[in-house]
Every structure is written in C-alpha cells, then in structure tokens.
Specification:
The protein is α/β, with parallel strands linked by helices. It is built from 8 helices and 5 strands; from the N terminus they run ααβαβαβαβαβαα. The chain has a single domain, classed as 3-Layer(aba) Sandwich (Rossmann fold). Helix content is about 55%, strand content about 10%. The protein has a 5-stranded parallel beta sheet with strand order 3-2-1-4-5, with helices on both faces. α3 crosses α4 (about 80-90) and α5 crosses α6. The longest helix has 27 residues, at about 1-30.
C-alpha cells in the first residue's frame, strides 16, 4: 500500500513537472507553439482571414505581388470590405479579389470559404492570418476540407517578444491557447 502510494506520488510529481514545463513554454515561447509557416509555396488562391486587417492584407498583397497565387479570397463579415480596400491600395487588381462576407469565427471562415473553393475546384490554398492565429486557422481549414492542400503564410506583425508582451497584444496571443483547446474539444479540430 505504501509502495503504491509512493509510485502514484512520483508519477503525479513527474506529471506536475511536465505540465509546468509546458506552461512555461507556452508563456515564454508562444511563437514556437502558435506560429505555423509553410515557407514559400505556390497555390491557386490566397485566403485572407478577417481581423488585424492591415497586417494580414499587407502580407496577402506581398504574396500576390510575388506570384504565390493569382487570386485572393477575403473572408470575414465586416473585415472583408476593409481588407479589400487595403488590397486595392496595395496594387491588387479588383478582378483578383473575391469576398466571403458571412463568417464571424475561424470555424465559419473555413466552412464558408471551403464552399467557394470547392465550387471553383481549388486544390492548393495559402492562408494568411496573424502568426499567433496560424495554427488554429490552418487546422480548421484542414479539418473542413481534408481534400484540399492548405499552406500557412502568416503576418509576423507583433512577433518580437518585446511587442507581444504589451497588454493588448499579449491578450490576443495568450487567448489562443484556450481557443485551441476549445476548438479541439467542441469541434474536433486537433491543434497538433
């Protein structure tokens, strides 16, 4: 009985240390956990997700100018018009921009945009979002359409530790962890 209790306590201690290490990694190195970047790729279309409009749209315009894809779909109710204006101002032609104006969450971004992608027989897609949102966004789209190949090319605005530690940025960064867990538990979108 005493041996069994010691073994349980030892495993509980090991588990506690592992959990503390995981929390420390999440707090001090969110870039390593949250950011997914597929590197330079070519695709049929770029999808820009709503939120943080200027940074995401600027990144999409940069990828467009570098011929990563010939078209851009802007996803997100309310943000779509803002993102479209930023893309136009950055030199992306209006005929290369398509809007998905119904989605209000990352899950809806994926669901509604995938309908457009399938209707247009798109096979390869570059997703543009903020670096700290890139893991959840990529896995949401992969979950919604396992038959389409998705790549992540995030915006790196506020990537430096000194910037994301500011309260307004840190809040967004650290809120990604419960969102990842919530999407996994509620929708089956595995973050790994």
């Amino acid at each position: 009985m005493i041996r069994k209790r010691r073994r349980i306590l030892r495993w509980a201690g090991i588990l506690g240390i592992v959990l503390l290490a995981a929390v420390a990694l999440a707090v001090f190195f969110p870039q390593k956990i949250l950011c997914v970047d597929s590197g330079p790729v070519q695709a049929d279309v770029i999808v820009v997700l709503g939120g943080d409009a200027a940074e995401r749209s600027d990144r999409a315009a940069e990828l467009f100018r570098n011929h990563a894809a010939p078209r851009i779909i802007v996803s997100g109710e309310g943000d779509d018009g803002i993102n479209r204006r930023i893309l136009l101002k950055a030199g992306v032609p209006a005929r290369a921009i398509e809007l998905e104006s119904k989605s209000r969450t990352t899950r809806e971004n994926a669901a509604f945009t995938v309908k457009l992608l399938r209707a247009e027989n798109v096979r390869r897609v570059i997703l543009v979002t903020s670096w700290y949102h890139s893991r959840r966004a990529l896995h949401c789209f992969e979950h919604a359409a396992p038959d389409i190949r998705f790549y992540s090319r995030p915006s790196y605005f506020a990537y430096a530790g000194a910037v994301w530690r500011r309260p307004e940025v840190a809040r967004r960064v650290y809120l990604e962890y419960p969102k990842l867990l919530g999407y996994w538990l509620c929708y089956g979108v595995c973050p790994f």
